[in-house]
Design goal:
The complex is a heterodimer. By secondary structure, chain A is of the alpha/beta class. Chain A is built from ten helices and 13 strands. Chain A has two domains: about 240 residues, Rossmann fold (3-Layer(aba) Sandwich), CATH 3.40.50.300; about 55 residues. Chain A is about 35% helix and about 30% strand. In chain A, a hairpin with a 2-residue loop joins strand 11 and strand 12. In chain A, helix 5 runs parallel beside helix 6. In chain B, helix 3 runs antiparallel to helix 7. Chain B is globular. Classes of the chains: A alpha/beta, B mainly alpha. Chains A and B meet through helix 1, helix 2, strand 5 and helix 3 of A and helix 1, helix 5 and helix 12 of B. The complex binds adenosine-5'-diphosphate and magnesium ion. Magnesium ion binds next to helix 1 of chain A.
Chain lengths: ~325, ~260
């Protein structure tokens, strides 16, 4: 396994005003006993509401921040004491910050990073070529970074994080604020990276489409604790997200009919919406009067997440 | 493969040259300002024949060592006072994610090339001072004449880093730090004998400012120290600087550790 944490915890002391002059120190527990085991080549979606502790976890995994308690190893190293050695093995993209040189053409940032990471010329050229093609960088390689759109810049950031061939790529909200086309480009790129299987990817995101398209495994945290670790399907099951069917009837719904294994959740003219509860689609359809059309609606991750956060926050 | 720090420094200089007009304006403004500093010394000697028991030919050597050292330190590490800004913008996190020294990267990434003008000027002023001052030239003094401004530069650099690192604990420490650096520079530009009592004790010897320019100048001039320091003490400046560098290093590393636990 390439990343392992046990009882990982981070407390912050926050000084708050209490009255005119008095100040009190409060302890905020941002990460509260997180156990993670991530295998080589996995793409992990690390999700949770704002303030859940996602960024703080990533900072502890990358060696920016010291844990208050618990164990961490990444690539067999302890992130803070072995910061420099670890830096060669990991890449990171933090959505709100940049590792590119603002006033220089994008091309120059890549050339500089080759020296920063001491990457042999041939390796650098091969990797850069692959990124240029997949992320379509060619048309703005010579543009100063400050003139790039956010989407173009993010594609540059991804490349910058990968040029030294890291074993693990950490991405903190990489799609935040991007236009639809750039989001799509970033997602496709991450999917192809995942499919190659050499790079372990840890992705935090608010974007539910990112999760649905990319992550086989999800860890959901809330208030610094892991509340779910498993597939998206397992998340659906666990929170009992039910399939719905929408039916367009020939005649308006009579209103007094009872259905076995399904509940009526909405009527709108000739359209009715049913939520499956134990029965299969076929079993329910067999009980329906004549209809013109039928659609099965899978539960969206939005519903799961809303329910999850809703139930946790009370 | 080329040294990464040199590459990053080159990139920073290229970035600054993008704004050519403002670059040259800054450069000439800085030069003008240090000319004003030198003017101040001559104004003083128009109203008094001696400062702290020394004539202008002697004091000018102290002022020149201190000035040249300060300019070099300011060029090399002056921008570190922007640490607060590096923390806020996340630049500190970015450098911590790279396999290089954090301090080294910050210094080259934010290198203020416009300050180079002052170094040229400070060096010229020092060369002039060496010819005007009654230096007792011999082999040891030739070496010490080269060492003195570099020693002063390292001393001031260490002071800059120490004071900047205080921002890790106290984010708004900038004004106090400025008072110290500029106060320190002004103190070292004149003979320590100009000051008295606890103030002199603290700044000249407690904080070591007498070792920056005053004592090396006395060594070059072949004069004994009138407060009562032994003659060999005049040659000990590099040792004092070493202590200050070790303090700076320890403070910086402690500050980085603190940043790692508070994240701010
Ligand atoms: N440097 C810090 N000092 C104090 N509190 C912090 C600091 N960084 C994060 N926090 C707090 O820790 C909690 C988790 O923050 P964060 O990890 O950024 O959440 P997320 O990335 O999931 O939105 C929040 O309550 C946040 O206010
Ligand atoms: Mg975050």
């Amino acid at each position: 396994m390439i990343i392992k944490t046990a009882g990982l915890r981070k407390d912050f002391e926050v000084r708050k005003k209490a009255g005119r002059l008095r100040r009190v120190t409060e302890t905020v527990t941002a990460v509260d006993g997180v156990d993670l085991t991530i295998e080589r080549g996995e793409l992990l979606g690390y999700i949770g509401p704002n303030g859940a502790g996602k960024s703080t976890t990533l900072k502890m995994l990358t060696g920016i921040m010291v844990p208050s308690a618990g164990e961490v190893t990444v690539c067999g190293l302890r992130p803070v004491p072995d910061r420099v050695a670890l830096a060669r093995r990991i890449g990171s993209v933090f959505g709100q910050r940049s590792q590119l040189w603002w006033d220089l053409p994008l091309r120059d940032s890549f050339a500089l990073l080759r020296h920063v990471y001491r990457v042999p010329e041939a390796e650098h050229t091969t990797r850069l070529k692959a990124c240029r093609k997949l992320l379509e960088l060619d048309e703005f390689m010579d543009t100063p970074v400050r003139q790039l759109s956010l989407g173009q810049r993010m594609r540059g950031e991804m490349t910058a994080a990968l040029l030294h061939g890291p074993q693990v790529l950490f991405l903190d909200e990489p799609t935040i604020g991007l236009d639809v086309v750039s989001k799509q480009a970033v997602r496709e790129f991450l999917a192809s990276l995942r499919d190659k299987g050499d790079t372990t990817i840890v992705l935090t995101t608010h974007d539910l489409a990112d999760i649905e398209k990319l992550c086989e495994r999800l860890i959901v945290i809330d208030h610094g604790r892991v509340v779910h670790d498993g597939s998206l399907a397992a998340l659906h099951d666990r929170y009992q997200m039910k399939k719905q069917i929408v039916v367009e009837l020939e005649e308006p719904w009579a209103g007094d009919q009872r259905l076995d294994g399904a509940a009526l959740v909405g009527v709108e003219g000739l359209l009715i919406r049913l939520e499956l509860d134990g029965a299969s689609v076929g079993q329910v359809v067999a009980q329906l009067p004549a209809f013109r059309d039928l659609a099965v609606v899978e539960p969206g991750i939005e519903d799961v997440i809303t329910r999850l956060y809703g139930s946790d926050r009370g | 493969m080329a040294n990464p720090y040199v590459k990053l420094l080159g990139a920073q200089i290229r970035s600054q040259l993008q704004y050519r007009a403002s670059f040259f304006l800054d450069l000439s403004m800085a030069t003008l300002l240090s000319a004003v500093d030198i003017g101040a010394l001559f104004l003083l000697f128009r109203v008094t024949p001696a400062l702290g028991g020394f004539g202008w030919r002697e004091v000018i050597l102290m002022t020149a060592i201190s000035g040249a050292g300060f300019c070099m330190a300011d060029l090399a590490v002056g921008e570190i006072e922007r640490l607060k800004h590096y923390i806020r913008t996340g630049l500190l996190d970015t450098v911590l994610l790279r396999p290089m020294s954090a301090l080294g990267q910050l210094l080259v990434l934010d290198f203020a090339t416009r300050r180079a003008g002052r170094v040229v000027q400070g060096t010229l002023f020092y060369l002039v001072a060496l010819t005007v001052a009654p230096v007792k030239w011999d082999a040891a003094r030739v070496v010490y004449a080269i060492v003195a401004p570099i020693n002063a530069a390292v001393f001031f650099s260490a002071v800059f880093v120490t004071l900047a690192a205080i921002a890790f604990w106290w984010i708004e420490s900038g004004d106090i730090a400025n008072a110290f650096t500029y106060g320190g520079r002004d103190f070292t530009a004149y003979p320590s004998t100009m000051f008295h009592g606890w103030f002199r004790g603290l700044f000249a010897f407690g904080l070591g400012f007498a070792f920056v320019a005053y004592l090396p100048a006395l060594a070059l001039l072949g004069l004994s120290e009138p407060i009562g320091l032994p003659d060999w003490a005049r040659w000990c400046s590099p040792l004092v600087t070493l202590v200050v560098v070790l303090i700076a290093r320890a403070t910086w590393l402690a500050g980085l550790r603190r940043y790692g636990s508070t994240g701010s």
